[in-house]
Specification:
Length: 202
């Protein structure tokens, strides 16, 4: 009989299934897949998988961190855009208000992420806002910034194709990067492969 997998009490909370799959592959690539559980809210008994779902479920996980049910906690969300009520500063402000009642105060705001420290010795709480912990945008904007040089020509063509689409476009303007990345993926050797699959070969 197969042995049950050991409980992983280090959690990386993400917005949804696509983010989970992407960051699971990142963890595998750097050898952290057995020590970190990447999960969206619903995988952790949250109500729904969205950015709002992350913020809503976070107090539950912070309580579990306080009583030792989990030992490490980090969160990744998209900054999104100020025009739709989001933005980098908005995400930081929202997070600060959520964690403050649990004794966490923001310690750093750098290119390596935002760290919240606890006065009573609990493990630091980490927060990263896609795409680069500074600008508006989302995971796909980070992917655009990370395109391999060999793929830049093809990706530039994908951007041009999206720009040339007839108006009105069906997707929201704030999702333009998603459309561009999806178009680029549609032209790979395996058309439409997932981001996680592309990360293995790029």
């Amino acid at each position: 009989m197969a042995m049950a997998r050991a409980r992983v009490d280090r959690i990386l909370l993400v917005e949804g299934e696509a983010d989970r799959a992407f960051f699971e592959q990142i963890c595998r690539n750097i050898g952290l897949d057995t020590s970190i559980r990447v999960a969206p809210p619903k995988d952790l008994a949250g109500s729904h998988n969205t950015k709002e779902g992350v913020f809503n479920h976070l107090p539950v996980l912070l309580a579990q961190l306080a009583d030792g049910q989990i030992t490490r906690l980090a969160v990744v969300v998209d900054a999104d855009n100020t025009i739709n009520g989001g933005g980098y500063s908005s995400a930081i402000d929202r997070m600060s208000k959520i964690v403050a009642p649990f004794g966490f105060l923001q310690a750093t705001d750098t290119t390596v992420g935002i760290l919240f420290k606890h006065g009573d010795g609990l493990a630091d709480f980490g927060f990263w806002v896609m795409p680069n912990n500074a600008d508006e945008g989302m995971l796909e904007d980070w992917i655009k910034q990370s395109i391999h040089p060999d793929e830049k020509g093809l990706f530039g063509h994908a951007e041009s194709v999206v720009s040339a689409l007839p108006q009105p476009q069906k997707f929201k303007a704030i999702h333009r990067s998603k459309a561009e990345v999806a178009t680029w993926l549609a032209w790979q050797k395996q058309p439409g492969m997932a981001l996680t699959e592309r990360s293995k070969t790029a």
